[in-house]
Amino acid sequence: MLAVLVCLAIGLSLWLALPSPASAHTHVERSTPPTEATFRDVRTSLLMITRWIGFLAAFLLVGSVVFQATVLGPGLGSMHPQEGWRLGEGAAARLRALQADAAIGLLAILAAEVGLQASLLLEAPLSYQATGARLWQFLVETTPGWSVLIKGSLALVLMLPPSLNWIPPLAGGMLLSGFTLTAHAARSGPLAAAADWVHLLAAAIWIGGLASLLVVLRTGSREDRTLLTQALAPRFSTVAGVSLGVLVASGVYMTLLYIPVVRAFIDTPYGRKLLLKLLIVTPLVGLGVANRFLIVPRLTGALHPPIRRFLRLVRGEVWLAAMVALVVAVPVSAPPASVRAPIASAAPARRHVTLSGPAGDVRVRLSLAPAAPGRNRVAVVVTDRRGRPLASPARVLLRLNRVDDPSAPVTVRLIREGRGRYAVETAALAVSGKWALRVVVRRKGRQTVAAVFPLQIGEGVR
Known about the structure:
- Helix 2 packs antiparallel against helix 3 and helix 7 (167-181) crosses helix 8.
- The protein is built from 13 helices and nine strands.
- By secondary structure, it is an alpha+beta fold.
- It is 60% helix and 15% strand.
């Protein structure tokens, strides 16, 4: 089943990345070499898979600590003291094992994510990134780096024995802020970021709580399983109902914020991703409602409580929730639909920008006009150290990365216009924000060199 989901993940990333007719002009004029493009696509797909597993691990970790505080503890307290102590010891041990596995898995995924994200952002091999300076630069100078630091440090906190009962839920909530930091909502204002964080927290409580319930109920005795189910299921049903209400409210808010018209569900990659998520969430909610109103009331009053049916429905919810996390993990480099509309009417920017710097044994001068969101003319002059244009032809590439979205770099090949002069027109800089422009110079028989220039496009440009 995991292999099927991984294959589906790659297919989803390709489908969601398809250009719509309205946005086809934003793709680069010349493609990268097949081997280079294929390698980048593989890295992007691997990053998506690591993001998916990272979401699942974080949801399990956060949901289990909240489940322990809001469901398991009160549920065991409502039982006879001897029964509660006997059943609670094994249930708590299974839950701690789940939390440890989730925390270790999240840390391992974060380590892989650092390498993949840095590789996409810096366009350098892993051996080059492994140097302390480069790794530190990625972690402290980029938004994805800070996201990794937040999630990793709080995962370590959750692995330690808590001195106070309220510390694990608090640390779990703070851990999810690392995901919000790299989400579209983080660039849409404090209210949107708060809504995204609350949405993630509610999803973690629901999804992680479902998995925790299954783990806790994995006991050998049918009688013990019945006692635990009767004590825990009604409480978890209440917690899940509140989480579902929060999910719906925050989801509606973000849909209205990012999808201004119904057609955007089809015409934009972000809209297609949201539509697919809604299609999977609908049966998930249906299973939850069936459990809440049809199965849970019969667990305590019936002569033969439908424990097996309840557990089957819970397993179905867990699998559908994993599919939702898969869709969420698919990286969509295009901005939300509401951000795409004002690109053409962005605030006036400078007429041109000129940046220069060394690239190995040559110097690179990069000119960008009008240096505004939308279509730009890019001109590059490559000279030797004395300032003389290179006589021999070279292959010059421009790689563009949004600093807060390194999963989908764009590569443009410049056209030679004369001795050491190269240029191209491209609409790849379609969105306001912080960009990293990497000029790569390749010459026959010489080492490939590059120069990286940070640049603010659109808002904030003076």
